[in-house]
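Whiteboard transcription, Tuesday session. T.W. wrote the C-alpha cells on the left side:
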C-alpha cells in the first residue's frame, strides 16, 4: 500500500460465476497507488448459497431452494453494507462493475449515496462515479434477463459460454470454455488456474428502478478482444445510454479480453485512477 492515500476508494462488483480471486492482482495494483479496495463475494455466485450440495463437488442440477436462488437484489444487500460503511466515514467511492456486475453497480448507486446529492445536504463522501468494465449496462425498468432475451417469446438466446442445467432458466447456469472465452490473453497456466475458480449463477430477474446513468459521471471500458461479451455489443450499450440527454459517459478502450483486471492490469489501474480523479472534480 502506498504511503499516500488516494482521495477515493473503489468498490468492485464482480461478474457472474466469479469469486474475488480473479480480481486480486488488480486489487493489489490499486493498493500500490494508495487506493483502498473492496470486493466482497456476492451471493449470486457463492456456491454455499446456491443449493449445490458440496461446493467442492457441486450439483448444478439440484432444484432451486424454496425461496429461490439469490438475485442481484441480494448482492445489493452485501454491497450496500460496504458502501454505507465507507460513506459514513466521509469517503468518496468509485463503483466498478465487471461483466454482469455492471447491473448491480448501477442498482446500488441510488441518489442517497451519490456524492453530489449528499453534498447538497451538507454531507461528505459518496459515490463519485460508475465505472463499467466490459460490463452489462441495463436500461432503467429492465432486468438483465429482459434486456438480453427476446421480448416476442421466441427462442431464448444462450451465449456460447453458458451451460443450462436441469431446471433451465429456473435453475442454475454454469460456464464452459472459460479459459478461452473469459480469460483469453493470459498464458495457458494462468487461464487454467482462473477457469477453475468459476462457479454458477441463476438467471437475473431483479429490475433496475432508477436511472444512475443520467445522475452521475459514468465510464465504460470497451474490451476489444472480448470473447464473452463481444465489443460490438459493448459499443451498442454505450451508444444506447450516451445518446440520452444528461448522460455523461467517458469511453475508454483496452486491447484486452473479458478479464482486463488480469491481462491488462496496469492499463486498467491507470484508467480507473484517471476516471476517479476526473469524477472527483465534478462533485
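and on the right, the sequence the group agreed on:
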Amino acid at each position: 500500500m502506498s504511503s499516500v492515500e488516494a482521495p477515493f476508494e473503489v468498490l468492485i462488483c464482480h461478474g457472474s460465476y466469479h469469486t474475488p480471486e480473479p480480481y486480486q492482482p488488480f486489487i493489489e495494483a490499486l493498493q500500490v497507488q494508495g487506493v483502498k479496495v473492496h470486493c466482497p463475494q456476492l451471493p449470486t455466485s457463492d456456491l454455499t448459497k446456491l443449493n449445490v450440495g458440496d461446493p467442492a463437488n457441486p450439483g448444478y442440477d439440484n432444484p432451486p431452494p424454496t425461496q429461490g436462488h439469490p438475485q442481484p437484489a441480494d448482492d445489493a444487500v452485501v454491497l450496500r453494507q460496504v458502501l454505507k460503511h465507507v460513506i459514513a466515514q466521509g469517503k468518496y467511492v468509485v463503483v466498478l462493475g465487471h461483466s454482469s456486475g455492471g447491473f448491480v453497480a448501477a442498482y446500488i448507486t441510488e441518489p442517497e449515496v451519490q456524492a453530489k446529492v449528499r453534498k447538497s445536504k451538507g454531507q461528505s463522501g459518496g459515490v463519485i462515479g460508475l465505472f463499467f468494465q466490459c460490463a452489462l449496462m441495463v436500461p432503467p425498468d429492465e432486468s438483465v434477463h429482459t434486456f438480453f432475451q427476446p421480448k416476442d417469446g421466441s427462442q431464448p438466446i444462450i451465449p456460447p459460454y453458458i451451460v443450462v442445467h436441469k431446471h433451465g432458466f429456473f435453475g442454475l447456469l454454469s460456464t464452459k470454455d472459460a479459459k478461452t472465452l473469459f480469460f483469453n490473453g493470459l498464458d495457458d497456466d494462468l487461464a487454467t488456474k482462473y477457469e477453475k475458480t468459476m462457479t454458477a449463477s441463476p438467471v437475473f430477474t431483479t429490475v433496475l428502478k432508477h436511472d444512475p446513468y443520467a445522475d452521475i459521471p459514468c465510464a465504460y471500458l470497451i474490451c476489444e478482444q472480448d470473447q464473452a461479451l463481444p465489443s460490438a455489443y459493448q459499443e451498442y450499450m454505450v451508444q444506447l445510454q450516451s445518446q440520452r440527454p444528461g448522460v455523461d459517459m467517458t469511453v475508454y478502450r483496452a486491447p484486452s479480453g473479458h478479464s482486463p483486471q488480469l491481462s491488462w492490469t496496469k492499463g486498467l489501474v491507470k484508467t480507473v485512477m484517471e476516471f476517479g480523479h476526473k469524477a472527483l472534480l465534478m462533485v
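Someone added at the bottom: Residues 22 and 86 are 23 Å apart (CA to CA).
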